[in-house]
Amino acid sequence: MPHPNDAADGNQAKIKDATAGVDLRTDEAFWRDMLALTWDYHTYEGRDTASRFLADQLLKYPSTYELREDLVELQTRFEGLAWIQDNFTFDTTVGHTSWIFRLVLLANCSWKGHMVYTHLEDPRGFREKIRPSNPEENHGESAEARKKEQEHLDEEPSVIVVGGGQSGLDAAARLKTLDVNALIIERNERHRVVSVEPGTKGKKWSVKVIRGGGRERISEVNHVVFALSIISDTLRFPDIPCRDEFKGQVLHSTKYKFATDHLGKKVVVVGAPHDICADYADHGVDVTMVQRSSTYIMTAKNGFWVFEDGSTLDADVVIFATGCVHLLPLGSNQVNNEYSYGDAREAYLQLLPTNLHSAVQPIWGLNEEGELNSVSREIGGRGPDADKVAGLWSLMGNPSLCRFFSKHVALQIKAYEEGIFGERC
Description:
The protein is α/β, with parallel strands linked by helices. It contains 8 helices and 21 strands.
């Protein structure tokens, strides 16, 4: 049986030969690239498809390779299933890149690649400036200097981040490590973004902000990151006869906080929010979950919830886990519904002029390669009118998604700002 290190050494020797590389992979091989070789996110499935990608891209970019022999490992997750994993670091014409690969042992005792992942770590010449944080460290900044920095009083920001939740904070932090000035604008009583329109002063976008007292501020920037909620603002409640006659509490699942708020109550949850129901059950709350199948709520008359089959259910609290509604009329040249929580593009379209609406591609959902449509991409995606909304970015999701993809948004913006962004493939 060949030794796995021999296979790794052989791969390193052959990897720059795209033709020879075909023989190094299984028929079911996968190759995923994130910005390293394509300036985009791609997953290539199958040896032939990956080989075409390899021939087109690999020989263009990599210049120096280093095999991380200290990281080579035989990994066994299940009995009879094992692979060799290691990675290269390599430099390309655009930056510092990592390359993770897995080799599997075939029946003929040869080791071949089953999975390859290439990833841009830093643009060439622009490493992330990351250091351990020290909350007690004092940089000598005065309160006035800090306010100027926060307000960008001395200079316009390079990027405006719309939204100050987890995705907005992640985006701004990542941009700061790459020396890109970003201003976060969170909607509150002090300020809010009211429009994002094509720029007029040599920049791509003009962002209008209404501040306290009705004052306006217009910033001209090349990039806007939409770090907004993954759902629309308008909640969906079913139209149930006599609901107003119910004397108990009715709320939407997005307003749910703690199971302990309803101790000693009978709770009915309409929909399938298993986490909420489990929380109630864990705290000893009498909870019933009603899912839409052959059972529908028909009326709430006389304080009972009456179902289409004539059965009734007592309740002190009713929670509707029934999603959100569209905020804009949907037309053939606008958007289609993506999920029960509405289309994530709704909030974007409220800020953009109507002639750009058709250029905004779906945010969630998967494309034909299994990649997310527009999360951490420019919102025009691969659509035919992508150039019309170039410089407008989407970033949203749970904390792990935001932390991971914020790096990729920042890398692309930095590359654009430095004039080193290549051609998307």
